[in-house]
Structure to design on (295 residues):
């Protein structure tokens, strides 16, 4: 991979951040096992400290150390993308500088949450980050968490200005996906952020996914993408439909609560701990998880 380039293609797993049993510290042994499991499954890359990584609950020091830890263990293996989902543009700029210094291959930038900026403000946010870092930026359209969608026209503008190399589309809307594909430049890659819509995204010209569920099912998601690329569309459809029930189960409560529960039951991470305001999986949903994943 050449400097300042990012091949946003295939399955990128949005890694969970494992914690100690009481949640007071990051469990780096578990994080290391998770990374190795992703390597073995053949994923194309990872995202660290995104929504699935509970970045909002990490201290500044933890954020830096988690990104550094993952970057060091993926260097020369596959791309490592760092998530930045903070409310203040000035803070986003500082984090982007840090991620660039650590050699991250990309930065996943969400609309600043809580502020509800205008589309012009979103463009200015990306411009400010691009000034301080040449690390490729990926726009993260997730209105359910950010409060504001990045409009397809805005994504088109960001791509034409060369501010972004790709988009994680997590609106859950096929129409928004289609409008985005029309609006952006041909070299701007669009990946699915909704795991149940991976096949649909590929069919519309997308290039892969940044997936929460691939923490648990990396081989299935890699297999789906590979089947589609090979022109085995029926096989890709079969995989998408086969995992649909498991995907729904992994979102029965807020991500990453169910994902961590499955990873812990499978022994990939030591504990299913999440940090407040997230709470452990409800007993009835834990039973559903056990049945769906036979763990």
């Amino acid at each position: 991979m050449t400097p300042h380039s990012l091949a946003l293609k295939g399955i990128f797993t949005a890694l969970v951040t494992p914690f100690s049993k009481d949640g007071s510290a990051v469990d780096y042994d578990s994080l290391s096992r998770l990374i190795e499991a992703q390597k073995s499954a053949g994923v194309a890359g990872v995202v660290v400290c995104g929504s699935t990584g509970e970045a909002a609950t990490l201290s500044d020091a933890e954020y830096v150390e988690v990104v550094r830890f993952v970057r060091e263990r993926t260097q020369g293996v596959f791309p490592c993308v760092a998530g930045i989902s903070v409310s203040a543009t000035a803070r986003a700029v500082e984090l982007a500088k840090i991620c660039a210094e650590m050699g991250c291959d990309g930065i996943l930038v969400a609309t600043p949450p809580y502020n509800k900026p205008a589309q012009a403000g979103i463009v200015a946010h990306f411009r400010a980050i691009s000034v301080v870092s040449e690390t490729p930026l990926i726009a993260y359209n997730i209105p359910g968490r950010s409060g504001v969608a990045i409009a397809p026209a805005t994504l088109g503008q960001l791509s034409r200005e060369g501010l972004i190399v790709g988009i994680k589309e997590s609106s859950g809307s096929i129409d928004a996906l289609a409008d985005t594909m029309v609006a952006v430049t041909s070299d701007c890659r669009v990946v699915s952020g909704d795991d149940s819509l991976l096949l649909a995204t590929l069919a519309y010209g997308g290039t892969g996914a940044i997936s929460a569920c691939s923490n648990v099912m990396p081989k299935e998601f890699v297999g789906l993408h590979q089947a589609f690329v090979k022109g085995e569309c029926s096989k890709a459809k079969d995989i998408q439909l086969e995992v649909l029930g498991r995907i729904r189960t992994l979102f029965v409560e807020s991500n990453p609560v169910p994902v961590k529960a499955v990873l812990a039951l499978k022994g990939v991470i030591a504990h299913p701990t999440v940090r407040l305001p997230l709470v452990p999986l409800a007993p009835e949903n834990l039973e559903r998880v056990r049945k769906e994943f036979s763990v």
